[in-house]
């Protein structure tokens, strides 16, 4: 657990990608109308959930006005609404919605993370940005590997990066 806290501290303080660091700050300065009165997290976003999880869900990156605003992946955006609703239906969490980081959401036997820790412009990280975040995802997966048995990657980039980390070849 302490090792994961250290990885998360490194993620939050990361400044490897100047394009992403600038973008996540600019999103806060150019808020969409519905969030104009809210403070944004505007830092790299860590994974979250049950550290003894059997299911690991790997997404692309935090959403500009979701995770980048709330400080938690799949929180406060439409993709999070969908994911949390499905997790709730199958008893992987305690509530059907997640809008804020302190909304009481508890994940059961599932951990959620991403291949890129900062929201990228147009949801399209550059290959170098994926590479820069690789060490964080690799460490997360290693620390969570004791119990994890199922890995659900959301999208081609997450699938490709998972395969890259685990040296899995020739699978599409």
Structure explained in plain terms:
The chain is globular. By secondary structure, the chain is of the alpha/beta class. The chain has six helices and four strands; from the N terminus they run ααββααβαβα. The chain has a four-stranded mixed β-sheet. 39% of the residues lie in helices and 9% in strands. The longest helix has 18 residues.
Topology:
Blueprint: H1 2-12, H2 18-29, E1 48-49, E2 55-59, H3 67-70, H4 78-89, E3 110-114, H5 127-144, E4 150-153, H6 156-165
Parallel strand pairs: 2-3, 2-4
Antiparallel strand pairs: 1-3
Helix pairs in contact: 1-5
Quick recap of the structure?
The chain has 172 residues and is an alpha/beta fold.
Number of helices: 6
Q: What percent of residues are in strands? A: 5-15%
Helices and strands, in order, run as HHEEHHEHEH
The major sheet is characterized as: 4 strands, mixed
Mean pLDDT: 95
- Unreliable stretches: none
Q: What's the N-to-C terminus distance?
A: 33 Å
Strand order of the largest sheet: 1-3-2-4
Helix content: 25-40%
**Global morphology:** globular
According to DSSP, the number of beta strands is 4
Multimeric organization = single chain
Query: SS-based structural class?
Result: alpha/beta
What is the radius of gyration?
15 Å
Defining key terms:
four-stranded mixed β-sheet; alpha/beta; globular; 172 residues; single chain
């Amino acid at each position: 657990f302490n090792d994961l806290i250290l990885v998360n501290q490194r993620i939050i303080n990361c400044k490897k990608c100047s394009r992403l660091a600038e973008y996540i700050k600019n999103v806060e300065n150019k808020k969409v109308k519905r969030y104009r009165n809210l403070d944004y997290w505007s830092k790299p976003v860590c994974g979250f959930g049950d550290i003894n999880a059997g299911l690991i869900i790997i997404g692309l990156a935090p959403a500009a006005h979701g995770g980048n605003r709330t400080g938690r992946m799949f929180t406060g955006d439409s993709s999070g609404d969908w994911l949390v609703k499905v997790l709730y239906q199958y008893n992987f969490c305690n509530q059907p919605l997640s809008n804020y980081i302190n909304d009481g959401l508890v994940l059961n036997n599932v951990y959620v993370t991403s291949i890129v820790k900062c929201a990228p412009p147009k949801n399209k990280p550059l290959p170098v940005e994926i590479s820069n975040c690789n060490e964080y995802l690799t460490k997360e997966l290693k620390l969570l590997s004791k119990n994890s048995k199922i890995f659900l990657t959301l999208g081609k980039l997450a699938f490709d990066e998972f395969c890259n980390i685990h040296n899995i070849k020739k699978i599409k």
